[in-house]
């Protein structure tokens, strides 16, 4: 196999972005695997691969990849939000809520704030609510 250059990895990363936009997350993952093997420290590539895992319903790999991103960038609001969505899809709402709240605290975007609210149909025994 010929040695891949840094330029090739950039091309693969950009192509993976296009594949993800075109709703081909598995194709994006294939391209990003080689980029991350060559550059394991590349957080942007890991975040993109995490999104691709999420969109292809590979929740455990998505969770692990988002966690790696957050170890490196604990203040990455989008990574917290996306990890929350991943945990939510994996039927782990309490863990998801923690990440939604961190995302909203770091960056008060409307979708982050909305996700950070308690669910009306089950507040897990926490005090709060609409006390009148």
UniProtKB/TrEMBL annotation:
InterPro entries: TPR-like_helical_dom_sf, TPR_2, TPR_rpt
Protein name: Tetratricopeptide repeat protein
SUPFAM superfamilies: TPR-like
Key words of the record: Repeat, TPR repeat
Source taxon at top rank: Bacteria
Gene3D superfamilies from the UniProt entry: Tetratricopeptide repeat domain (1.25.40.10)
Extent of the TPR repeats: 77-110
Taxonomic source organism: Streptomyces albospinus
